[in-house]
Amino acid sequence: MITIVNENQYHLKGDGTMALSMMAIGETRRISEFRGKPEMKQHLQNLGFQKGAEIKVVGENPSGLILLIKDVRIALNRGLASMILVD
Amino acid sequence: MSYTIALAGNPNCGKTTLFNELTGSKQHVGNWPGVTVEKKEGLYRKNKELNILDLPGTYSLSPYSAEELIARDYIVKEKPDVVINIVDATSIERNLYLTLQILETGIKTVVALNMMDEVEQRGDQINFDKLSKSLGVKVIPITAKSRKGLDNLMHEVEEVAKGDIRPTQISVFHGKIPQIIAQVSSVIQEENEQYGNWKALKILENDQQILDSLKEDDQLRVTQIVNQAEKEYQMDLEAEIADQRYQFIANITKASVVKKSTGYTETTSDKLDKVLTNRFAAIPIFAIIMYLLFATTFSESFLFIEGLQSPGVWLAGLAETVWGFLTGLLEGVLVNASPWVFSLVIDGIMGGLGAIVGFIPLVLVLFLLISFLEDCGYMARIAFVMDRIFRKFGLSGRSFIPLLMGFGCSVPAMTATRTLESEKDRKITTIITGFMPCGAKVPIFAMFVSVFFADGNKTLVTYSIYMLSIVVAILISLFLNKVVYKSGASNFIMELPKYRIPMAKTVFIHGYEKIKDFAIKAGTIIFMSTIILWLLSNFNVDSFNGKNAAASDNGSNLAEMDDSFLADIGNVIAPVFKPLGFGEWRPTVGVITGWIAKENVVVTFAQLYDDDVTEEYLETFFQKYTTEELSDFGFEDGVYDFDTAFTIYSEVILFEGQDENAFHTMKDDIKTKAAAYAYMVFNLLCMPCFAAVGAMKRELKTWRLTGFGIFVQMTTAYLVSLMIYQIGNLIGKF
C-alpha cells in the first residue's frame, strides 16, 4: 500500500511525534515511523534509517536537510524528510 | 588452482582504492556513490592464484538500484570463493548492515576494517578479536590508501579460500522471526539448507525477485505464511528484520568499539558544508566554480588576461600543430600516389580527423576538472544544492552531473546517467543530454557568429545559444515528466562523502575513463564516417563511366563536391528545411554530416563554400601571420599548391573558429540572421552524432525508446528553429 503524504500533514501528532523536516539544526531525535513507498522505506533502512535510530540535523538549505545518522552525513530533500516521523 | 575473490562494500568505503592497491590495475576511486558500474577484475599482485573482482558499491543485498542488483546476483549466484567485505570503520554501524546480509548467504567472508588511520586519529579503539567472534568471521584492520594491513588481509583471505573455514553461524534474529523463516524455508525446499534459509529471509523482506523465482503454488503458500504472520504478530516483517539486524549491530559494536567522544564533533567536512551548501552562498560559489571550470577549458583570455590561453586552448593549439605536422609528412610520402589515394588520405582521413583533434584536448581538460570535482566530494554537494532547482522541472539534482558532462561530450555524459536511481530520471536525462552544446558543436556557433553576427555582440549571441540549450532541456524535461511519464520529481537522498584532496593519479585515471568512450568514438565511428563522407562527396555516377576522367586534366575519376552523391542527397532533403530558412542542399548536407559527427558541420561548410577562397585570398589571409606561426601551421619555405594551402587554411579557421572575410557565399543559401540563428539552433538540438545515439541506445536499452528519444530531439529542433526563423523574419531584424 502506498501512503502519499502531503508535505505539511504530519507536523505534530500531539504525542511529541513530528516530521523530520520540522527539526531544527543541532536537534537530535529518534526515528519513529516512515510514511511512503515501500521501496523508499527499504532504501532508507539500508542507509541506517530504521525505527529508533538516532538522527541529528547538521545542516539545512533550500534543497533540504543534511543529517548525521550512524556517523554518516546524508542529504535529503524536504519532501522526503516530511515523510519520516521522529519522536 | 585459481580462486575468485570478490570485493563488496558500501559506496565510498574505499573499495576501489583497495582494488587498485591489490591488483595494481588502472582503476579509479570516486566519491560519487556507485561509481563502479562495471565488473572489474585483476590478479593479486603478490599471488596470481587470486583473481580479484570489484563489485559495485551497495548498501544492502536487497537491491534498490540496478547496480546493487549486480553485486547481489554475483554473490548469490556466481558464488565467489571468498568475499572481502570492506567496512568503513569510521561509520561501522551503517557498514555492518551489509556485512550481516553477506554473512546470511553463508558465503566465505573476510571483513576488512578500512580507514583505520582515521579511527586512530579520532582516538577510538576497536577490539578486533571481539568483533571477529561476534561476526563469526575474521576481521582484519587495514588502511587501503597507505597499503597498511593488506598483506595480513590477503594472507587471511588465502587461508580461507584454500581451507574449509566456513563462517560460524551467528544468531542475529530472535522472537518469532527464526520460526517464520523455518516455516517458509520448509515450503521452498532447497537442497542447501543455508541457501533455503537465505531465500526464506528475503521473502520475509518482501523481495519480489526471489518470490518470482518460486513455483506458482509455492508463491501462494509462502505469501500466505507471511501475511498470516504479519497479522498474527502485528508486525511489519521487513521493518522488524531491519530492526533486529541493527539491534544486533548496536550490541556488538557496544561490546567491541570504544569511542573517545560519544557526542557530535564538527569535522572539517561539516565546516566546509556550512559554506558550500549554505542557503545564500552555495549558488554563487557554485557559479564561480562553474565559471572557472569552463574558463580553464575554453577561454581565450584566461583569468581575464587578454591573450592568455587557458590550458585547454593551449593544448588544443598544440594538438593542431602536431596534426598539421603529421599531415605534412604524409603529404610528402604520398606525393607520387594517385590523386584519389592522396585525396582520401589527406582530405578525407587526415582532414576529417583533424577536425576533432582540435577539441579532444578541450574535452580532456573539462573531464579532468569534472573528475576532480567528483573525487574531492564537491559533486555530491552540487547535486544536493541543485536539487531544489531541478525538482521544479521534474528531475533530481543528481541529473546535473550528466548534463554538465554534456558540455564536453554526450557519449560519456549519457553513460553517467547510470548513477541515477530513478529509471524515469535516467531516461529523461539521457534524452535531454543530447541538447547540450557539446565541444563538437562549439565550432559551428563560432563560425556562424563570425560570419552572420560580425556587426553585433558576438559573445551575446553565443551566450544566448547556451542559454537556449538549457531552457529547451528544462521545457522538454517538464513535458516528458508531465505528459509522457505523468509523474513529478523523485525524492533525493544521497550520502555526502567526506571532502578529501584527491590524488592526481586517481583524477587522471578517472578522467581517462570518461574520455575513453570519446577516444574510441574518434577511432571507429568518426574514422569510418570520414571515409564514407569522402566517398559520397568525391564521387558521382560519372566517376564510374569514365566521364570524369575524360574531363579532368589529370585523369582523375573524382567529382566536384557540388556535383557529388552528397549534393544529390542534400537536394532531396533540402525542401524539408525551407520553412526553417535554410532549405538548400549545402546547409542540408551540413546537417547530415553533423549526425556523423557534429564537428563535420564546419568542415563541410569549409569545403562547400570555398568560392570566396581563391588563391589570391589565401595569400592575403596568410600574410597576417608571422613566419613562426606559419611554420606552426605546417608551411615550410617554398611554393604551395592551392589544395595544400586550402587544407591548412580550413584547419586554421576551424581552430580559430572564424574568418570574417570568407564564406560570403554562405549568405546565398542562408539569407538572414534569423535563418543563420535557426540553423545553429537546429544543429544544437537535433539528433546528436551517431556515437551519442549509440550511447543513448546503451542507456535506454531498447531501440523503441531510443527512437522515441530521437523523435523528441528532432521534433524539438524543428519546432524551435521554425519559430525562431518565422518570428525572426516577422520582426525583420535579428
Short description:
By secondary structure, chain A is of the alpha+beta class. Chain A has helices spanning 38-46, 78-81; strands at residues 18-19, 28-34, 54-61, 64-69, 72-77, 84-86. Mean pLDDT of chain B is 85; it is low at 28-36.
Task: Walk me through what this model shows.
- The complex is a heterodimer of chains A (87) and B (734).
- Chain A has 87 residues and is α+β, with helices and mostly antiparallel strands.
- Chain A has one domain: SH3 type barrels, CATH 2.30.30.
- Chain A has helices at 38-46, 78-81, and strands at 18-19, 28-34, 54-61, 64-69, 72-77, 84-86.
- A 6-stranded antiparallel beta sheet of chain A has the order 1-6-2-3-4-5.
- Chain A is globular.
- Residues 1-13 of chain A have low confidence and may be disordered.
- Chain B is mostly helical.
- Chain B is built from 34 helices and 9 strands.
- In chain B, the strands form 2 sheets. In chain B, strands 2-3-1-4-5-7 form a 6-stranded mixed beta sheet, with helices on both faces. Chain B has a two-stranded antiparallel sheet with strand order 6-8.
- The termini of chain B are far apart.
- Mean pLDDT of chain B is 85; it is low at 28-36.
- The A-B interface holds A 28, 36, 38-48, 50-53, 56, 58-64, 66, 68-77, 79-80 and B 59-60, 62, 64, 90-94, 97, 205-206, 238-239, 242-243, 246, 264, 269-270, 273-274, 277-279, 282, 380-381, 384-388, 391, 397, 491-496, 498.
- Strand 5 (72-77) of chain A pairs antiparallel with strand 9 of chain B, so a sheet runs across the interface.
Computed Rg of chain B:
31 Å
User: Could you state the oligomeric state of the chains shown?
Assistant: heterodimer
Please provide the ordered H/E string of secondary-structure elements of chain A: EEHEEEHE
Largest sheet of chain B: 6 strands, mixed
Report the sheet-strand fraction of chain A.
Answer: 35-45%
